[in-house]
Amino acid sequence: MNLHAKLLQRQAQGKPLRVGLIGAGKFGSMYLAQVPNTPGVHLVGIADLSPANARANLERVGWKAERTAATSLDDALAKGNTYLSDDWAALVNHPAIEIIIECTGNPIAAVDHCLAAFRAGKHVVNVTVEADAFCGPLLARKAADAGVIYSLAFGDQPALICDLVDWARTCGFPIVAAGRGHKWLPHFCESTPDTVWGNYGLTSEQAKRGGLNPKMFNSFLDGSKPAIESTAVANATGLAVPDSGLAFPPASVDDIPYVMRPKSDGGVLERKGMVEVISSLEADGRAIPYEIRMGVWVCFEGETEYIRNCFEEYKVRTDPSGRYACLYKRWHLIGLEVGVSVAAVGLRSESTGAATCWNADVVATAKRDLAVGETLDGEGGYTVWGKLFPAEKSQRIGGLPLGLAHNVKLIRPLKKGQSLTWADVAMDTTLAAYKTRREMEAMFAPAQVKVA
Q1: 18 forms bridges with which residues in the sheet?
Q2: Number of folded domains in the chain?
Q3: Whose CA is closest to 46, among 61, 25, 60?
Q4: Is residue 384 part of a domain?
Q5: What is the mean pLDDT of the chain?
Q6: Do 340 and 259 belong together in one domain?
Q7: Distance of alpha carbon 58 from its chain centroid, rounded?
Q8: Element (H, E) at 310
Q9: CA distance 78 to 142
Q10: 339-348 vs 3-13: helix axis angle to the nearest 10?
Q11: 376 in the same domain as 342
């Protein structure tokens, strides 16, 4: 509750949190828009593969050229401004920088960046949740072994969901389900970057104005990102995963307590203590009024008559039995909120969500029939989308993690809708990301899916 006061104190002491940002795309730009308004934080450096594109984004969010006039990281520290380059290693290894924000969106590169940061004694706020989805438990373990903090990014939906789950558990409420909203119809899993904007609900002009990446936004639409984010939540909170993947049941905000309860009580859940995603569209495509497409929610249980009476007395929206209730946020502000993670990590040595177990996985699934020799293009692309699996099931079939389905060739043909396995691709086993994943599988091999 007092992060801002602590930031003001650090500013008054002349001891700001010193931060480095890797990746100045859409999410990074949103954080950059807020840094000038945040006391007690010095963004010492930005590393981006294209400094020219990064400068364009800085101009877009309102930065003046003099803010990035530094000629080196040391110069930025001396002058209180920011150094922009393409050298992420220099940023990670500079002794004065305390916190790295990994914001590239590239899961394979993100693993390299996180591991290097841990070795250099840096905390990491990992925006690239795609990396967390396939090896987050081991990243969190390696950070702890190095004596640093690894954290999901507040503002992104997984950290916000984790926050709601933590709230409910801290209050003593059992978790029935938790998750996010989404605009979903089953055929969206076939969407490609060529078809994304019409289904997503933006014009090409709006996308261009915002500098939006069609492949990245398509990873939301085609179901990959909801699976990735649900995986991050399940692995951070210990919640279970639907055996057949996300169901995307349609519901309004008011209907969440009706829908997010066990099937035995009239809902859609296989059992209590699960992740799920709610659709903002009815099965016939009609938009649901008062939906939660851009928000997050937690459904919790009043176990005693006294607690259920309290729900009634304080006008809590529940299911007809009065047992199941919901708390929610209808919107998330993505990179505009990531300063909460920076402050929590830097001032309290607390993450805003990090994997503690391996309950869930995202397996690459064919969008269409795929031929031998085709190259997979990862989440949001033309070849595969991500389906949520219980980790035990994924490991049993040898499922290929979506985060590693980048620039790898098929050595066996696949039919549309088929889940890919390690045996289907020619994987570069020298990648740190591959080695980290395999190490994570060995260390965190699941027995049975856990229930809250």
Answers
A1: 42
A2: 3
A3: 25
A4: yes
A5: 95
A6: no
A7: 23
A8: helix 305-313
A9: 32
A10: 70
A11: no
Residues 195, 132 share a domain: no
Could you tell me the two tokens for 145? Answer: 């072994």
> Could you tell me if residue 284 is inside a domain?
yes
Q: List helix spans (H) across 86-183.
A: 88-93, 107-119, 129-145, 157-171
Structural domain harbouring 113: 3-157+335-348
Burial class (CB in 10 A: 0-12, 13-18, 19+), 294: middle
- Alpha-carbon span 343 to 42, nearest angstrom: 12
Which amino acid is it at 20? Answer: G
Q: Could you read off the pLDDT of 84-110 as tens digits, one per residue?
A: 999 999 999 999 999 999 999 999 999
Residues 288 and 393 in one domain: no
Average pLDDT over residues 9-26: 97
Instruction: Record the tokens describing residue 71, joined without a space.
Output: 């000629």
Is residue 340 located within the same domain as residue 271? no
Q: What percent of the chain has pLDDT over 70?
A: 98
pLDDT tens for 172-190 read: 999 999 999 999 999 999 9
Q: Which amino acid is at 130?
A: E
Residue 391's H or E segment, with its range, is: helix 391-397
Residues of the chain with pLDDT > 90, as a percent, come to: 94
Residues 123 and 174 in one domain: no
Give the single-character DSSP code of 291.
-
Residue 384: strand pairing partners: 366
Residue-wise pLDDT for 321-367, tens only, equals: 999 999 999 999 999 999 999 999 999 999 999 999 999 999 999 99
Q: 222 pLDDT exceeds 80?
A: yes
Query: The tokens of 30 are what?
Result: 């949103």
Backbone angles phi, psi at 97, to 5 degrees: -80, 130
Tell me if 414 sits within 8 A of 366, measured CB to CB. Answer: yes
> Domain boundary residue among 348, 372, 399?
348
